[in-house]
Amino acid sequence: MSGARESVHGEWSGSVFFVLAATGSAVGLGNLWRFPYLVGDNGGGAFVLIYLLCILLVGLPIMMAEILIGRRGRHSPINSLRLIARDEGLSPAWQGLGWLGVAAGFMILSFYSVVGGWALYYAFEAVQGGFQGMDSDGAGALFEGLVASPALVVIWHTAFLLLLFGIVAAGVRRGLQRAVTWLMPLLFLLLVVLVLYGMTSSGFAETLTFMFRPDFSVVDGGTVLTALGQAFFTLSLGMGAIMVYGAYLPARSSIPGNTTWIVGMDTLTAIIAGLAIFPIVFSAGMEPGQGPGLVFVTLPVVFAEIAFGSLLGIAFFLLLSVAAITSGISLLEPAVAYLKERSGLSRTAAAGFITVAIWLLGIAAGLSLNAWADVRLLPFADLGIFDLLEFVSNDIMLPLGGLLIAVFAAWRVSAETRLAELGMQADSFRYRAWLLVTRFLAPAAVVLVFLNALGLFG
Ligand code: PFF
Question: Does a structural domain hold residue 420?
Fold first, then answer.
């Protein structure tokens, strides 16, 4: 029977709320900020195709594995792994996987909050009418001005984390459920408006070619690693965020069904974001490979042109901040839940301690874009602090975490546990397919991509 244990942190009041919360975690800056710029930097269609394959063949089965472990353990990822390992006579070292996730969450949230701060700053600029009459040069200058200013970057990073902490302290359930039930669909609607606007522009045909006609000559091992890392990042996988949400999932709720919804909505949002942003890029004759500034140097141009642009601009960047906050909450949750279990601190106090640590690391990430641009922490990697945090957490730690999660769920845990949690029959096609993919394909894909990125295949 599933749900032999009860969650010490309470439960979602139904499957819908789990799906909403997990979608709130998945849909965020990864879809609207990171996905478009990675597509731009990595040459378009081939990247999109590899990314979609990674989502389907690696992300989807691993998400099921994460939820399965979470619901069986009913605790923070660290303790869930420890308890399941104990119940099933496995090595206690498996809880190390939970610690890997907590470390990844700290690193991700530190730079995530810097970018969340940019979204807030843009909402603020829009309120002040800052996008009026803006062309692509003006938009570029606005973004460069922001990133080059240590004070602005640190102030808005601080504002983002304060908001995030305020919501966590006020009670995640109420705030989070409201945000994902009403505000996220609104954000999606706004994106659709932007796509419709893009369809009328001269850059739309080129957008379709760019995003959907693969040119494999631009692909190398690094591209595939980036696509895989992005698949984990966008689905919030490999660090326990979805696992901890799964710990609060009611016993009777269907894991495969919920997973399909979450993955579907996340993927749709990313594609729609691309369709909203690239028409602006091509119509204005900009370069798609703009790097991390892409959303911020394109969208203000449309808001300057479109009817009700200032209002839509305010709404868009506020909603983007909300999307980032619902993801940020899930980045905090594995560590908060653990600290609460371990110390008996209140949720607010636990979140407070962790937020301060992330705030400090985030300041280092933010300053590395300006004042500390030349600082290199690793002598052999020519990456600033921001880029290093992003690379190590997204492209290394998440896929590695995902690999270990797949091994734990598909090889180490008993078949009885797997079947009970997934609600499947041992001889059903669905179960066999999941087991095959999670046992062999997903781990092999991660290992091959790692080896390939190391240049081992010449
Ligand atoms: N999935 C989020 C996004 O796409 O913005 C980012 C994220 C949240 C990554 C939670 C990892 C995580 F655990």
Answer: yes
pLDDT at 458 over 60: no
pLDDT per residue over 288-302, tens digit each? Answer: 999 999 999 999 999
Question: How does 254-288 read in b/e, with b if 16+ C-beta sit within 10 Å?
Answer: ebbebbebbbebbbebbbbbbbbbbbbbbbbebeb
Q: Please state the atom number of ligand 1 nearest to the C-alpha of residue 235.
A: 1
Is the C-beta atom of 233 inside 6 A of ligand 1? yes
Q: What is the pTM of this model?
A: 0.95
Q: Is residue 311 part of a domain?
A: yes
Q: Atom 13 in ligand 1: which residue has the minimum CA distance?
A: 236
| Whole-number Å distance between alpha carbons of 255 and 420 | 11
Return phi, psi of residue 307, to 5°. Answer: -65, 140
Q: Print the domain residue range for 49.
A: 15-453
* Interval between CA 75 and ligand 1 midpoint (Å): 20
CA distance 361 to 355: 10
Burial of 128 (0-12, 13-18, 19+ CB in 10 A): exposed
Pocket of ligand 1 contains residue 30 by CB under 6 Å: yes
pLDDT tens digit string along 388-435?
A: 999 999 999 999 999 999 999 999 999 999 999 999 999 999 999 999
Look at residues 258, 337, 176, 249 and name the one whose alpha carbon lies nearest to residue 11. 249
**Beta carbons within 10 angstroms of residue 425's beta carbon:** 11
Establish if 4 belongs to a structural domain.
no
Alpha carbon 257 to its chain's center: 21
